[in-house]
Amino acid sequence: MEKYLIVGTGGVGGSIAGFLALAGKDVTCIARGKHLEAIREKGLHLRSDLKGNHFLPIQACTAEEYNEKANVIFVCVKGYSLDSIKDLLEKASDKDTLIIPILNVYGTGPRIGQLVPHVTVLDGCIYIVGF
């Protein structure tokens, strides 16, 4: 089974993680602080008009704790945080990994490609209503 890694489990990353988990995918979320504690204790809360309200038991850890190779990595951090996740992206990827940046700035794919040149990077775009 493919492994999906969500780097930045806020509104966008959490939504992606939730829908992947509902589809039965192997998902791990990178989070910090109280958000990480909440996901570990209660699961990831997904509220969707289409799929309903769910608390999903999803693997969650810090960047330092993650020690697997992912097949697909969704990068959902703020644009100014890209440099800070370089070590995680290097550790979590190999030549067959696909990285899809879903950031608040379009066109970050080339920048991620410079940070981790051994992977395939495809720019992504998503529209989510959050509250």
Automatic annotation (TrEMBL):
InterPro entries: KPR-Related, KPR_N, NAD(P)-bd_dom_sf
Gene Ontology cellular-component terms listed: cytoplasm
Residue ranges annotated for the Ketopantoate reductase N-terminal domain, each copy included: 4-128
UniProt-recorded name of the protein: Oxidoreductase
One Pfam family linked to the record: ApbA
